[in-house]
């Protein structure tokens, strides 16, 4: 039987320096980037088999460029779901997550907001209050996960949980049988 296919668009939001680009690189290229390039707004692509579905995944990396407001709207409108990333060693980045969530809510209804809260840099000594992160995730009905782009802890899982939730909402297409007359 032919496998089902799905094209999935993800946007990764979070304050500068939390590890958005590093998480995407780790997921796609299995490598860790150590240099910090704040203005990355690139669109990355990969193919993964998740829940037995062949997924073409487009991942929009984001930054705080001047064009951010306009771009954010574009990214949210064309996305199926989002990772909201904060850094485990920076409480202010957790406090800023509701702002990113509200941007998504401006363009999507509550039930169309498919989000996973990611606490990154958990290879370091954590400063943020995990209970607070949990409370925020529960308040928006989202799962939360601790990751490290550096050690590769839970990176695949973070993206997979998001993709699985997207697939639940948007069931994949079954390939049509080709009929040759
Ligand atoms: N220790 C540690 N450093 C990380 C982790 N993720 C990213 N970094 C570092 O944090 C800095 C900012 O990461 P980057 O992905 O560019 O942040 P972005 O602005 O959110 O895209 C870089 O120097 C990364 O090497 C992580 O999980 N653990
Ligand atoms: Mg970046």
Automatic annotation (TrEMBL):
Gene3D superfamilies: P-loop containing nucleotide triphosphate hydrolases. SUPFAM superfamilies: P-loop containing nucleoside triphosphate hydrolases. One of its GO terms (cellular component) is membrane. GO terms for biological process: signal transduction. Keywords: GTP-binding, Nucleotide-binding. The keyword Protease does not apply. The keyword Nucleotide-binding applies. InterPro entries: P-loop_NTPase (IPR027417), Small_GTP-bd (IPR005225), Small_GTPase (IPR001806), Small_GTPase_Ras-type (IPR020849). GO terms for molecular function: GTP binding; GTPase activity. It comes from the Eukaryota. Pfam families: Ras (PF00071). Belongs to the small GTPase superfamily. Rho family. NCBIfam families: small_GTP. PANTHER family: RAS, DI-RAS, AND RHEB FAMILY MEMBERS OF SMALL GTPASE SUPERFAMILY. This is Uncharacterized protein.
């Amino acid at each position: 039987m032919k496998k089902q296919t799905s094209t999935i668009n993800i946007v990764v939001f979070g304050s500068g320096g939390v590890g958005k680009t590093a998480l995407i690189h780790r997921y796609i290229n299995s490598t860790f980037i150590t240099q910090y390039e704040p203005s990355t707004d690139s669109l990355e692509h990969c193919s993964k088999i998740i829940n037995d579905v062949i997924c073409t995944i487009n991942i929009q990396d984001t930054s705080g460029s001047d064009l951010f407001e306009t771009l954010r709207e574009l990214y949210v409108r064309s996305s199926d779901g989002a990772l909201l990333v904060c850094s485990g060693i920076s409480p202010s980045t957790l406090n800023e997550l509701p702002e990113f969530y509200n941007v998504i809510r401006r363009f999507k209804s509550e039930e169309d907001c498919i989000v996973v809260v990611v606490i990154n840099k958990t290879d370091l000594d954590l400063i943020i209050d995990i209970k607070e992160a949990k409370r925020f995730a529960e308040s928006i009905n989202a799962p939360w996960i601790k990751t490290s782009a550096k050690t590769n802890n839970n990176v695949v899982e973070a993206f997979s949980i998001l993709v699985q939730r997207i697939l639940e909402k948007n069931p994949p297409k079954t390939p049509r049988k080709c009929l040759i007359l």
